[in-house]
Amino acid sequence: MEKVRKDMEDGMKNDADRKLRAEILDRIIKETSFDLPPKMATGYSEYRANAKIAESKRYGVDIESSPNFKKDEFEKTCREEGDRLAREELIIEAVALKENITPDQKEVLKRGEEYEKMFRNSGAKDDSANIKRRGLTMAFKEILNDKVYEKLISTVEVKDKYVDEKDKINKSEKRKKENA
């Protein structure tokens, strides 16, 4: 019974964390404006389309052959989701660069090995070097994201499920300007 309770609490905490991360990124995306490199935008759009198609096939459904499938709407949705993913990645990288945040190499190697095993167990048909590279890339991005979110979350205050900036952010920026 205690394990079930802990699992439920962990699940609720993870859901709350995902929502907080999304809300923080929503605010950053809303407050910033930048053009995406065209290849990046296209790549993420295609990634979302392929992921949706693959997921539907895992459930035995070919969404593209479905009578209700609307290609234009599907492509629009994938472009919007791909745009968001690309913007999130660029923002994460920009924050990491500005704040000098880097993942620990040992942690990346360890988690990369876990991803590599997962890919092999899932029947990935890539060559060994590519599977290893994919695992390390996923591990690096995941750890970098976590570290950036830790930094972002440490600079916001959560009240009633909404994100409010702390006064310390403004004070810190004011001090930096005064000292510059």
Q: How would you describe this structure to a colleague?
A:
- The longest helix is centred in the N-terminal third of the chain and has 30 residues, at 2-31.
- The chain has helices at residues 2-31, 38-58, 71-98, 105-121, 128-154, 167-179; strands at 156-159, 162-165.
- The chain is 76% helix and 4% strand.
- α2 (38-58) crosses α3, α3 crosses α5 and α4 packs across α5 (128-154).
- The protein has a two-stranded antiparallel sheet.
- The protein is globular.
- 8% of the residues are buried.
- With 180 residues, it is mainly alpha-helical.
Task: Show the helix and strand layout.
Elements: H1 2-31, H2 38-58, H3 71-98, H4 105-121, H5 128-154, E1 156-159, E2 162-165, H6 167-179
Antiparallel strand pairs: 1-2
What is this structure, in a nutshell?
With 180 residues, this protein is mostly helical.
Q: Helical region count?
A: 6
Given as residue ranges, the uncertain stretches (5+ residues, pLDDT < 50) are none
> What class would the helix/strand composition place it in?
mainly alpha
Q: Report the biggest beta sheet as strand number plus sense, adding barrel if it closes.
A: 2 strands, antiparallel
- Identify the overall geometry: globular
The helix/strand order is HHHHHEEH
Total strand count, please? 2
Q: What fraction, in percent, of the residue positions are helical?
A: over 70%
Round the mean pLDDT to the nearest integer and report it.
84
Could you give the distance between the termini? 57 Å
Biggest sheet, spatial arrangement of strands:
1-2
Strand content: under 5%
What value does the Rg take, in angstroms? Answer: 20 Å
